[in-house]
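Please, structure for the following, as tokens.
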Amino acid sequence: MLECVVNISEGRDPGLIEGMVASCGSSLLDLHADADHNRSVATLVGTSAPRNLAWWALENLDLGAHAGVHPRLGTIDVVPFVPLGEASMADAIAARDSFCAWAATELGIPCFLYGPERSLPTVRREAFRGLVPDTGPTVAHPRAGAICAGARGPLVAWNLWIDGIDLATTRTVASLVRTDTIRTLGLQTGHHTQVSVNLVDPVRTGPDVAHDAIVAALPPGARVLRSELVGLVPRAALARIDPARWSELDLDDSRTIEARLAG
């Protein structure tokens, strides 16, 4: 079984969000929409729903009209395939490569690969700046931009809202806690700032570890307002965290991948 966590550059318009949900059908396990990021994260099962959602995005969204605090290369911004159960990383890579060939041929959108070849941050830094698309046109699609298509293990996306510091200081805090398993961005979200976190090995380094590292890096007078899980969390990552901290970290067993698959 393969999971696919598609990041779409739209998170504000209720009608468009409803259209996203409809395009995914019964393969949708979770959809998280964020107005500040202007981004939605759809957690899907299988390989058909990501293509349906990509078609929908191509027909309904325009990157030229997009504004949001989260960086993006395209309307169908990130499409990672994740092996679950008996599936292997080779299965995820095959699904990724098949998706990219389809997106290039059917949608006319360039795709950049990440996974064994390179990291997603590398693609974001170097795309069209020395790094050419792996499939599709060599220039961005006029409405859809480009796609970052990946093959990776389970990842936890998680945000921490901060009060009492400006964006520059938040970016400094974000840089201080980065490790090989914690990727961070410092963002402005309304009247507050946010450390946006990707935990690339969540069993080894979970939201509790990231939370405590960020708190320790805050200057005097700054405080954490709240945490937010984006999408779903592997049950193995949740199991290693003291249940007394789940509420503080915006975690719950009902929001595990396994619980949604069972439901």
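The chain is about 30% helix and 25% strand. The chain has a mean pLDDT of 97.
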